[in-house]
Amino acid sequence: MGRSKLLASIVVGATVGAALSMLDRTTREKTIASTKKMKEAISYYATNREELQVLVEEKVLATKVLCESVSENVNSIIDKVDEFKELPSTIEGMINDTKSAFSLPNKE
């Protein structure tokens, strides 16, 4: 049984697509500019590893804070859903109390 050619086909398709997109002058110029920026950033952080470490730690901390915030929001939503689930029984009790109050015989 032959090997799957899916991965090879994907790579060839991506390469052909990238080559065709480089025919556009604007795309080519933006790609060259972003590649230069990336090269400068890599060489800068290669010589300033401490700064890279601080940057990564800040991003990790920001991600952690975001995850905690999302978790708190999800828990809050779950609490609200639970409150809404209890609401029909509360309303039913109020309606029954009102019915019983109005259906009592008047003792005048």
Task: Give your account of this protein's structure.
The chain has 108 residues and is mainly α. The chain has 3 helices and no strands. The chain has helices spanning 6-21, 25-47, 49-103. α2 packs across α3 (49-103). The chain is elongated and about 90 Å long. The chain starts with 5 loop residues before the first helix and ends in a 5-residue tail after the last helix.
Q: Approximately how much helix is present in the residues?
A: over 70%
Low-confidence stretches: none
Q: For the residues shown, what is the average pLDDT?
A: 90
Query: What structural category do the secondary elements indicate?
Result: mainly alpha
Spatial extent as radius of gyration: 32 Å
Q: Strand count, sense and closure of the main sheet? A: none
- What overall geometry do the principal axes of the alpha carbons give? elongated
Give the N-to-C terminal Cα separation. 97 Å
Number of DSSP helical runs: 3
Strand content: under 5%
Q: Tell me how many strands there are.
A: 0
Element order, helices and strands? HHH
Task: Briefly say what this structure is.
This protein is mostly helical. Helix content is about 85%, strand content about 0%.
